[in-house]
Structures are given as structure tokens and as C-alpha cells.
Fold this protein.
Amino acid sequence: MPRGQRVITVNAEDHIWDTAQRAGITLPAICHQGRCLTCAGKLRVSGEFDPSDAVGYFPQDCEAGFILLCTARPRSNLRIRTHMQAAMRAHRLRCGLPAPYT
Ligand code: FES
């Protein structure tokens, strides 16, 4: 996070963003549907997560290590850099994929 590292425990059935909010961590978000990219993060090391609740998440996003925290459910320990919306939008534009709010 911009102001240092935080550690939370997220149940496998919960979205990462929701658990962070309950832990007092306010992360950016607009749609909460996996569409707008505002909540984007990026994996710092490889890890597993379920992105299937996102309205718009592409294999190229996963290959590049991006994660939409509002709709992702963890499937392993994850180390995530938050506040990556601009980087993910730039990635989407490079790939010719939808990049809302750019
Ligand atoms: S808040 Fe819109 S994609 Fe997560």
C-alpha cells in the first residue's frame, strides 16, 4: 500500500476488498463488479486467486499479474501491491482491451 504493508486474513469465500474494508483498510473502488479497474492490484509474487466474480477480467490480466480486489477470492497466500489502477488501465490499452476511465 502507499503507506506501508498490511497483513490480513481473507476467507476463501470472501472478496479481498471486503475483508480489507472490515479490517479498516480503505481501498479505492467504484463498481464493485470487476469492471472499472479502480480497485486493481498487482501480485508481487505468484499466487492463486479466483477472479470468476468479475464482470470483466481477461487472461492477459492474469498473465500480467493484475488482480481486481473487489471480486477476487484468494486461493493461496498473496502479496499484492495496491493502487495499481493506472498501471492496469495502461496494460489494458496496450492489449487492446476495455480500459474504463482512461
Ligand atoms: S471496484 Fe470496479 S473493478 Fe473493482
Notes: Residues 16-95 form a domain with the Ubiquitin-like (UB roll) fold (CATH 3.10.20.30). The two ends are 22 Å apart (CA to CA). Strands lie at 40-43, 49-50, 66-68, 73-74, 80-81.
